[in-house]
Design goal:
By secondary structure, this protein is α/β, with parallel strands linked by helices. It is 32% helix and 23% strand. The chain is built from 10 helices and 14 strands. Helix 3 (70-78) runs parallel beside helix 4 (106-125), helix 5 crosses helix 6 and helix 6 packs parallel to helix 8. The termini are far apart.
């Protein structure tokens, strides 16, 4: 049986996610702003949850149709084959968003979605009232330019929750965005990665996991493991494949620095939970005292943002010091993400490439120096 799926991602990472999905066997791959549609069997759904590094979650597309009135919305949902995915005792809470559409009230849309799904499932199972006493099937919807999409979330907690980051520093970078930066930097098994502002260690840990082919979802559970259309065998197979691909003799190493003692301790603790602590060295050091470790480096960093952690002037003083300590790169590569449009001028060098990425709702740029 072939199903249609959609995986949301950070704006700017659609191309990276498209490549990931094709690699695990997804077909009919189509990217839109902030999400990628694809199709495949049940095994593709399990592999997507276990293997995808830049997806925020994996959802089954239950249906998509035009809805400009609540009657159209109700009738569209009432005819969908929901019982193929949702059991007669399953809970089915729903949430979503509306953008540039005639139906704009989220509470009102939620109410109609719930009512229409209850009528649909009640007819399929011969029940007047749905008990909703079993497993939870989280329903998500989007209404964009009057096109309604109903989705079943197979992930549960967002896929950025790998399980290794129990705590974080003041302004962490999400694991999925960090993985996207790691992919853009083309981190490989023989590389040395350095982060002079390591925070909770996310960029270092995601680099190690990518270099060693450790699947990001290997150690966590998913809502889809309780869904009727996904058998236990597809999850077992996906995890077995993931374990078989891990590189146990990689030459990769990572070095992290931070001025904050708690961040240094946090990075070390998170790396241990992730199982990559033997590849990562971390120590307390101010950027003013930064000295490049020996060998060719890929420097991946999320330096302090004026909007979130420091006053803009203080953040820019750090960017200036970065330039003084890191330039010339002498064969090293640098990938720095920041929302400050003046970064290049303050740092002291024009990037070879910069691309727009979003860190949450904050528009940033990834400045790449690789020559």
């Amino acid at each position: 049986m072939i199903y249609n799926y959609v995986a949301p991602c950070h704006f700017g990472l659609e191309k990276t996610l498209t490549f990931e999905i094709k690699k695990i066997g997804g077909e009919n791959v189509r990217a839109e702003n902030g999400r990628v549609f694809f199709s495949g069997g049940a095994e593709v759904c399990a592999k997507a949850n276990v293997f995808l590094r830049t997806a925020e979650r994996v959802c089954v597309v239950l249906g998509q149709f035009r809805a400009t009135t609540f009657d159209e919305l109700f009738e569209g949902i009432r005819t969908l084959p929901l019982s193929e995915f949702i059991g007669k005792t399953d809970k089915f809470p729903n949430n979503g968003h509306s953008l540039n559409s005639k139906l704009a009230s989220i509470p009102a849309i939620q109410k109609i979605v719930k009512k229409a799904m209850a009528v649909n499932l009640g007819k399929a199972y011969g029940m007047v009232v749905m008990p909703e006493s079993g497993a939870e099937c989280r329903i998500r919807f989007s209404l964009m330019k009057d096109t309604f999409t109903l989705m079943l979330d197979t992930s549960g907690q967002g896929l950025h929750k790998r399980g290794y980051r129990r705590d974080s520093n003041t302004a962490p970078i999400r694991e999925t965005l960090a993985a996207g930066i790691v992919d853009i930097a083309r981190v490989r098994a023989g590389d040395t990665v350095c982060d002079p502002f390591c925070g909770s260690g996310t960029l270092l840990i995601e680099s190690a996991m990518k270099a060693l082919d450790i699947a990001p979802g290997l150690k966590r559970r998913f809502d889809g493991e309780h869904m009727k259309f996904l058998t236990e065998s597809v999850w077992i197979t996906a995890r077995e494949e993931a374990r078989s691909l891990i590189k146990k003799d990689g030459e990769f190493r990572a070095v992290g620095f931070d001025i904050d003692k708690e961040c240094v301790e946090l990075t070390a603790a998170n790396a241990k939970i992730a199982g990559v602590d033997e590849y990562i060295t971390v120590e307390r050091r101010d950027i003013r005292d930064f000295v490049c470790p020996d060998g060719a480096l890929k420097i991946l960093t999320n330096p302090p943002y004026g909007e979130r952690m420091l006053e803009i002037s203080e953040a820019r003083e750090i960017y200036k010091t970065m330039g003084e300590r890191l330039l010339p790169l002498n064969g090293n590569q640098l990938y720095a993400i920041t929302p400050d449009e003046e970064f290049e001028n303050i740092f002291g060098a024009k990037a070879d490439k910069n691309r727009k990425l979003y860190n949450g709702m904050m528009m940033c740029r990834l400045y790449s120096y690789f020559r």
